[in-house]
């Protein structure tokens, strides 16, 4: 098995993960000078800022100008405000600083999306006493940066649409899984995707590829076989959706060993273990893409059908279809982890930032006790939406760090924009309408994991049918703060006190009615209910 530890040991030395020292951002610290303070001009810190990085002036009482115009947001510029190309100055007692020009960091970006792997299935999270064997993911977390409060939508397609666009399901119309055969909806082509985003980057031209499972269009969609290409990717090879579904009639039962692969719009039946095949394709793209590049690798694992993987990829001995599904799930996950080691061995961490996450939590019948299997995938409980998320490579300034900030899969889009130098706050539709982005850049946390959360609350949702409504099947929402969580579902309202160190919600505080709440809990319920309704009612469908 290819172990991440071994390939990290072969990386260029100079710091964890082979990072050179000193950091290229060390110049952000103010320089010591000998000039009298009374004669010295103030300085913007850091004086070579990156997009979304907070700024402060090295003297008190500062006022700010950006691009020549006054900025009245206070004495410090918080995370998430600055954009590529901005020219910032601070003024103190009539003395103006030199301009600090915001410059994007650039570099390649590799997005790795896992399927149905919740926090209970990865060892680094320490969330469950019996995780799947994931030594490479665990080593990636140890050498990278972990987001401990990362959230997704509770099913495949909504998370994938959010990653692609940085916009919530209520805006894109993707609120539940798009079924290849039963649905007629697809991610609208008027949405701007990650691939189209980097095409708009100033300077060097980016190349892009999508490898693996797409799951954002149905067979009734226009040009379903070329949908990833129509959404901006230069190249695509992988499955349209889950391996048990296909565009053409399957001659045999579809499995991880026999499945329909589409290469740039042309379908073919292949007999190769899907996780290995996807990794082979991804490695080929890493080796051949022109830099800078965006590569999105979307694995089918560990979604059903749980075909026993090759025995050299797991430690569970001979497996058959009579082996309990939960054991096959662990084997499929370990096989995926082994292939991740192969892929990451080909990645240069000095030039590439890797973002690895899962699309939702673990499927119900794959959850082991003591976790509640009714609170997994497809639900708005923590087990369905609180997901693994690790960053590693070029832009992780403190390898081995963790962030407690609330982050969301929506955040990948503005993060990529910041890396590429696209001013994502100013994006618009072709007709001139503003294109609101619901995500927030992760760059401040990658640069400094102690950065305070840009969000006070985190929201996730599910609705059906897909589209602009009305959502006649269901329209559910969940919102949580550090201490509380509110859910509005078909079963009614739910309200929880979030205990530190727990990975689930515990007991519903509304079981005895709202009148049983103490004053603090009652105030939190009113606040979160109002915030949830506001998020649902003011986030408009765009199409």
Protein described:
By secondary structure, this protein is α+β, with helices and mostly antiparallel strands. It folds into three domains: 71 residues, Immunoglobulin-like (Sandwich), CATH 2.60.40; 351 residues, 3-Layer(aba) Sandwich (Alkaline Phosphatase, subunit A), CATH 3.40.720; 79 residues, no CATH class. It is 21% helix and 20% strand. A hairpin with a 2-residue loop joins β3 and β4. The N terminus is likely disordered.
* Helical/strand content category: alpha+beta
Tell me about the biggest sheet?
A: 10 strands, mixed
What portion of residues belong to β-strands? 15-25%
What shape does the CA trace take?
globular
Query: Helix content range of the residues, please?
Result: 10-25%
Q: Notable features of this structure?
A:
single chain; 543 residues; Immunoglobulin-like; Alkaline Phosphatase, subunit A; 3 domains; 10-stranded mixed sheet; 5-stranded antiparallel sheet; 22 strands; disordered N terminus
Helix-strand layout with pairing:
Elements: H1 4-9, E1 44-45, E2 55-57, E3 63-66, E4 69-71, E5 76-77, E6 87-92, E7 95-96, E8 100-101, E9 108-114, H2 135-143, E10 145-151, H3 156-165, H4 169-172, H5 194-199, E11 207-212, H6 227-230, E12 236-238, E13 259-263, E14 266-270, H7 274-288, E15 293-298, H8 325-344, E16 352-358, H9 382-385, E17 389-393, E18 401-408, H10 412-420, H11 443-447, E19 458-464, E20 474-480, E21 484-489, E22 492-497, H12 519-538
Parallel strand pairs: 9-15, 9-16, 10-18, 11-12, 11-15
Antiparallel strand pairs: 1-2, 2-5, 3-4, 3-6, 6-7, 6-8, 10-17, 12-13, 13-14, 16-17, 19-20, 20-21, 21-22
């Amino acid at each position: 098995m290819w172990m991440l530890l071994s390939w990290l040991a072969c990386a260029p030395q100079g710091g964890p993960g082979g990072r050179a020292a000193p950091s290229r951002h060390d110049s952000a610290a103010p320089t010591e000078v000998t000039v009298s303070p009374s004669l010295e001009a103030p300085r913007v810190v850091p004086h070579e800022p990156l997009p979304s990085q907070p700024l402060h002036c090295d003297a008190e009482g500062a006022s700010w100008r950006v691009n020549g115009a006054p900025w009245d947001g206070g004495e410090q510029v918080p995370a998430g405000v600055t954009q590529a190309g901005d020219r910032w100055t601070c003024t103190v007692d009539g003395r103006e600083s030199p301009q600090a020009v915001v410059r994007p960091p650039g570099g390649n970006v590799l997005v790795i999306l896992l399927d149905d792997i919740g926090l209970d299935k990865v060892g680094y999270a320490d969330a469950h006493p019996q995780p799947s064997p994931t030594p490479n993911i665990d080593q990636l977390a140890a050498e990278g940066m972990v987001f401990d409060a990362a959230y997704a939508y509770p099913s495949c397609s909504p998370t994938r649409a959010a990653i692609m666009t940085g916009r919530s399901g209520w805006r894109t119309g993707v609120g539940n899984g798009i079924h290849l055969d039963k649905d007629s909806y697809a991610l609208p082509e008027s949405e701007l995707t990650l691939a189209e985003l980097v095409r708009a980057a100033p300077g060097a031209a980016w190349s892009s590829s999508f490898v693996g499972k797409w799951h954002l269009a149905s067979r009734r969609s226009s040009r379903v076989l070329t949908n990833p290409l129509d959404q901006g990717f230069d190249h695509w090879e992988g499955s349209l959706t889950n391996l048990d579904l296909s565009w053409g009639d399957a001659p045999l039962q579809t499995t991880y060993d026999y499945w329909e692969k589409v290469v740039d719009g042309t379908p073919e039946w292949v007999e190769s273990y899907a996780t290995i095949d996807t990794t082979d394709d991804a490695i080929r793209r890493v080796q051949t893409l022109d830099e800078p590049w965006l590569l999105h690798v979307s694995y089918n694992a560990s979604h059903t059908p749980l075909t026993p993987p090759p025995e050299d990829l797991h430690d569970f001995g001979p497996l058959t279809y009579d082996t309990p599904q939960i054991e096959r799930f662990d084997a499929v996950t370990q096989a995926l982890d082994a292939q991740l080691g192969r892929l990451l061995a080909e990645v240069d961490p000095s030039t590439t930032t890797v973002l690895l996450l899962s699309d939702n939590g673990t499927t119900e019948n794959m959850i082991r006790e003591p976790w509640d299997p009714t609170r997994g995938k497809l639900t708005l409980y923590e087990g369905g939406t609180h997901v693994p998320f690790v960053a590693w490579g070029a832009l992780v300034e403190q390898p081995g760090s963790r962030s407690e900030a609330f982050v969301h899969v929506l955040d990948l889009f503005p993060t990529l924009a910041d890396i590429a130098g696209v001013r994502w706050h100013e994006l618009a539709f072709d007709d001139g309408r503003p294109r609101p982005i619901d995500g927030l850049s992760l760059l401040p946390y990658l640069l400094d994991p102690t950065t305070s959360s840009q969000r006070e609350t985190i929201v996730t949702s599910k609705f059906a049918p897909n589209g602009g409504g009305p959502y006649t099947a269901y329209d559910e929402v969940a919102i949580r703060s550090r201490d509380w969580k509110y859910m509005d579902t078909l079963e009614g309202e739910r309200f929880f006190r979030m205990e530190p160190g727990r990975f689930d919600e515990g007991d519903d505080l509304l079981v005895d009615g709202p009148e049983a709440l103490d004053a603090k809990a009652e105030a939190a319920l009113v606040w979160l209910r109002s915030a949830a309704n506001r998020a649902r009612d003011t986030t408009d469908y765009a199409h």
